[in-house]
Design a protein that fits this description.
By secondary structure, this protein is α+β, with helices and mostly antiparallel strands. It has one domain. Helix content is 24%, strand content 21%. It has 6 helices and 10 strands; from the N terminus they run E-H-E-E-E-H-E-E-E-H-E-H-E-H-H-E. Strands 6-5-2-1-7-10 form a 6-stranded antiparallel sheet. A hairpin with a 2-residue loop joins strand 3 and strand 4. It starts with a strand and ends in a 14-residue tail after the last strand. The relative contact order is 0.23.
């Protein structure tokens, strides 16, 4: 099975978020957004969307032409240009995929057949080879059951502020720190960044970033897209 990878973000004003001090803190400590009227991103999940197989041949009359298909990060075909962000998958009103992330106080998850709403989520399509995509999904499956990194989440703003003045700021509460106990612990954007890095998809991102920082850093190497499915607003979640 071939998958396309999307990063799905929730802004601080989303109706899916609970009214809590945690979400307010995530919004208040977020990096400055690109525009003054934009809500900072406070939660992120990676969505693996199944892709239909490419057409291998094209018949025109009695002539049959083979598609020189390159199964790399961007689809290149003899019959068309590079795959764009407005593909049928990206523009569909509803789309089913495998979601990977973690919620506050919960455990890292890999949820199949999870749905997302265009009204509530912002999407970025992440270029990756099929091998990288499979490696990323397998990495997330191995992280299932890991706990939430509360200490890392609450100290992230201080580390980010200190990094403006010090070139190397230690992260005492990184996911695999001895201070975390026997199992690794993550917050949402920390987990998503690690999955992309460990699978070789995006290796130069800031580690353990705030969701808004993660969003800003992947903007230049991803494309906007909107795979969506309806989601009940009562299923409130938080970063």
């Amino acid at each position: 099975m071939r998958y396309a990878i999307y990063a799905a973000f929730l802004g601080s004003s989303s109706e899916l978020l609970e009214e809590s001090m945690l979400n307010k803190l995530a919004a208040r400590t977020a990096p400055a957004t690109a525009s003054a009227d934009a809500d900072p991103k406070v939660h992120v999940e990676l969505l693996f969307v199944p892709q239909s197989k490419p057409v291998k041949t094209l018949q025109l009359g009695h002539a049959v032409y083979k598609d020189k298909y390159d199964d790399g990060p961007a689809r290149k075909s003899r019959f068309g240009g590079e795959e764009a962000a407005d593909t049928p998958e990206a523009m569909a009103d509803e789309l089913t995929g495998i979601a990977c992330s973690i919620h506050y106080g919960g455990q890292a998850f890999v949820h199949e057949n999870k749905t997302f709403s265009r009204a509530n989520w912002s999407f970025r399509r992440i270029p990756a080879t099929p091998e990288q995509t499979r490696a990323a999904l397998e990495w997330f499956k191995q992280r299932q059951g890991d706990g939430f990194n509360k200490a890392g989440f609450f100290t992230e703003p201080a580390r980010r502020a200190a990094s403006k003045y010090v070139s190397c700021v230690p992260n005492l509460f990184q996911p695999n720190s001895p201070l975390q106990g026997k199992t690794s612990r993550w917050f949402c954007s920390e987990l998503c960044e690690a999955g992309l890095r460990e699978s070789g998809i995006l290796a130069e991102l800031t580690r353990s970033p705030h969701p808004e920082q993660f969003f800003q850093e992947i903007r230049n190497c991803t494309t906007p897209a909107a795979p969506v499915e309806q989601r009940n607003a009562r299923n409130a979640i938080h970063f």
